[in-house]
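TASK: fixed-backbone design
INPUT:
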């Protein structure tokens, strides 16, 4: 509980400022290292990546390889390497690249217990044992640790007619922590929120971008995070940031032209300022996590985010896809078709963005007569379908979710997209593909940024 009061101090960061950060950081590191069983010698920048690694069985990547621990037989039992033949398994890497240490197995099992409660809500120790495949003894042991750490609480006794002693119910202590989520994807405004562990938005703040780029834009991010950190009323589990552009797994924004950022170590900059765990990821990748956690999305899905530009996030077998240069889902500057097309900011012609980006769509609509409006939208939708058909064919996706202005996307545009996809893929395998609007509206990136923190710090999503 010492840890909770220490971390709660960050809510008053303005009083003693950044000067006190090193001491706090050390204290914070000690507590969090204990929470996730990491030796103290590890520094915290490693810690964020390390925890991410540990939350996934056989992790291959440094960010959430599997955003939630799976309940596959391979990960049951004590969690030690299973020597039986496993065949293919969704979300499991083909070639192991690191040995599984006993302490990693323990962390995996901790995440498994938390994940079970996070999604299912109140359960007894016996329920958790049944659904995770872990023994009653292991569950009692882990639950004891979590209760001591304040992460799990006993919520009462089950009222049922079964004979014998009623079971004690447990739940994640959903009010123990809060999360700061930041969305940098809007070209006019940086937006952020304080969220609870269920992803509910408790407080909002925004900062007008007013054309800022480079260091000035970075300072505005820090200003927004600072405002939200001060608004938090519980210890902060971490800060999640969804940024436009290409972001590597260490939270470095490799390139975000609109903000004038190249190789900006945004994650470590914010870690240094706030002495809290920080996860920075691409905005569309954040959005896809939100859709998976809060929108009921399928494990094999693509989220297409249409705004000032066009980007996408991919989830395959419940695992986020980042790609060889962290640019998976960057479909905006893929040229669609062979008939040329409009000039694009990137120098090519006929990029998907020239059909679909909101400013392009709005100017096309402004130039069209009322009767031609639907044709303009359908034409944009058809081009989206053309771009997505090979992706759907190659990956056998179950679902495509669109995020952006509903009045533009939901109607002739979406209808033309799905029709084009149906005409260009095999009905036998792709006929039940669904395409829909997100239900998360404009909060999708902020809530996805919170999922990045939940996944990184607790292994739940
Ligand atoms: Zn382009």
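OUTPUT:
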């Amino acid at each position: 509980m010492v840890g909770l009061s220490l971390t709660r101090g960050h809510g008053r960061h303005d009083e003693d400022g950044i000067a006190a950060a090193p001491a706090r950081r050390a204290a914070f590191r000690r507590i969090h290292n204990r929470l996730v069983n990491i030796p103290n010698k590890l520094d915290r920048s490693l810690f964020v990546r390390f925890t991410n690694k540990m939350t996934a069985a056989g992790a291959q990547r440094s960010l959430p390889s599997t955003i939630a621990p799976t309940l596959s037989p391979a990960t049951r039992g004590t969690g030690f390497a299973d020597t039986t033949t496993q065949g293919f398994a969704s979300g499991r890497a083909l070639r192991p690249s690191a040995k599984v240490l006993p302490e990693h197995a323990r962390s995996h099992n901790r995440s498994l217990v938390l994940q079970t409660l996070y999604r299912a809500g109140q359960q007894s120790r016996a329920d958790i044992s049944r659904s995770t495949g872990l023994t009653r003894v292991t569950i009692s042991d882990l639950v004891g640790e979590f209760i001591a750490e304040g992460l799990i609480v006993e919520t009462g006794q089950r009222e049922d007619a079964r004979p014998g002693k009623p079971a004690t119910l447990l739940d994640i202590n959903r009010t123990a922590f809060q999360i700061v989520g930041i969305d940098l994807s809007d070209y006019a405004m940086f937006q952020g929120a304080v969220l609870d562990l269920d992803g509910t938005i408790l407080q909002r703040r925004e900062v007008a971008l007013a054309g800022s780029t480079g260091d000035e834009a970075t300072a505005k991010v820090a200003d927004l995070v600072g405002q939200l950190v001060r608004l938090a009323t519980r210890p902060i589990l971490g800060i999640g940031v969804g940024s436009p552009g290409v972001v590597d797994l260490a939270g470095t924004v490799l390139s975000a032209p609109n903000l004038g950022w190249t190789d900006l170590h945004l994650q470590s900059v914010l870690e240094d300022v706030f002495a809290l765990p920080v996860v920075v990821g691409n905005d569309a990748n954040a959005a896809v996590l939100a859709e998976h956690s809060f929108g009921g999305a399928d494990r094999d899905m693509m989220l297409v985010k249409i705004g000032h530009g066009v980007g996408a996030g991919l989830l395959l077998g419940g695992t986020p896809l980042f790609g060889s240069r962290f640019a998976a889902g960057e479909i905006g500057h893929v040229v669609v078709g062979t008939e040329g097309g409009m000039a694009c900011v990137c120098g090519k012609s006929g990029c998907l963005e020239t059909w679909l980006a909101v400013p392009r769509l709005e100017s096309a609509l402004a130039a069209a007569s009322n009767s031609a409006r639907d044709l303009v939208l359908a034409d944009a939708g058809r081009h989206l379908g053309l771009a997505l058909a090979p992706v759907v064919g190659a990956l056998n996706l179950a679902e495509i979710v669109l995020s952006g202005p509903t009045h533009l996307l939901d109607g002739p545009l979406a209808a033309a997209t799905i029709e084009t996809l149906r005409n260009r893929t095999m009905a036998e395998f792709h006929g039940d593909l669904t395409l829909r609007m997100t239900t998360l509206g404009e909060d999708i990136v902020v809530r996805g940024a919170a999922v990045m923190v939940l996944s990184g710090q607790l292994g739940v999503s």
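COMMENT: The pocket of zinc ion is lined by residues 333, 344, 346, 348, 351, 353 (CB under 6 Å).
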